[in-house]
Each structure stands twice: as C-alpha cells, then as structure tokens.
Amino acid sequence: MLKGECNCGAVAFEIDADVKDIYMCHCSICRKWTGNNGVAVIVVTNESLTWRRGEDQIGHWHKPSADWHSAFCKVCGSALPVANDAARMAVPVGLLDDTKTDLHVAAHIWVASKAGWDEIGDDGQQYECAFGQA
After folding, report:
1. How many H helices and E strands in the chain?
2. CA distances from 100 to 58, 78, 94, 109 (A)
3. H or E segment and range at residue 28
4. By 3-state DSSP, what share of the chain in percent is helix, strand and coil, each rounded to 5?
5. pTM summary value
6. Do residues 111 and 26 lie in contact, with contact meaning Cβ atoms separated by under 8 Å?
7. Which helix (H) or strand (E) holds 82?
8. Could you give the CA distance from residue 23 to residue 1 in angstroms, rounded to a whole number?
9. pLDDT mean for each 10 residues of the chain (134 residues)
10. Are 113 and 27 a contacting pair, CB within 8 Å?
C-alpha cells in the first residue's frame, strides 16, 4: 500500500497496486504545471486509488487547446493525482510518503519538447512524443 498527500496534508490518498515504473513527461505544459523540468508520475487504475481525505479541497484546471487536465490542492497548490484516461490516474511521485526503492524511471515522454537546460541522466526509454505517436 502506497500512501501520499499534498504539501499541507489537506488531501491524502492510498494506492493498492504493485507499481514499479515512473514516467517522466517533459512537455511544456507539465513544465509550467510543476515549475520544473516536467512531471514524474506513476500510472495506476482508478480502482486502486482511494481518497482518504480532502476531496473537497481538489481543484481542477483544463487546457482545451491540448485536452489536458490538472488537479491541485486548493490550500497549498500541490499537484495531485489526475485522470490519465478513463481507466487510469497519473499520480505525481513526489506526493508519496515513503520512498520505494524499487521505483525507477521507465520512460521519458515528449523529449522533443524538453527545455534546453533539461539533461536526462538515467536509462529510461526516451520518446520524442507520447507513446505510440510519431
């Protein structure tokens, strides 16, 4: 069982799934969402994520031009788990309370969009765009 929460603790969740892979998105939207070089997430099924508190403190933002959604804590602004698609959630790994030593970066996506100062220094597979796109 993985547990996570936002920076202020207003929103908390648990994940009941065996997760090993971290996916790092380097697109400009994720950079602006985090104020960093992108976002590192694990992807879990909707059924495996349970909100423990603070669902009423979750804000949402939608960028129509990119069909992109984000979720954030209304109190502290931390990025929160958000729908990846109809069946899965993308969970920012920085929210996890414990550090699982068997988590590793499996893939970097939207590498063609990464910032010029962003240097990828691990052996995760690199994709110019998203999985399955040219």
Report:
1. 1, 11
2. 25, 21, 11, 22
3. helix 28-34
4. 15, 40, 45
5. 0.89
6. yes
7. strand 82-83
8. 20
9. 95 95 93 91 96 97 83 96 92 86 90 93 89 54
10. yes
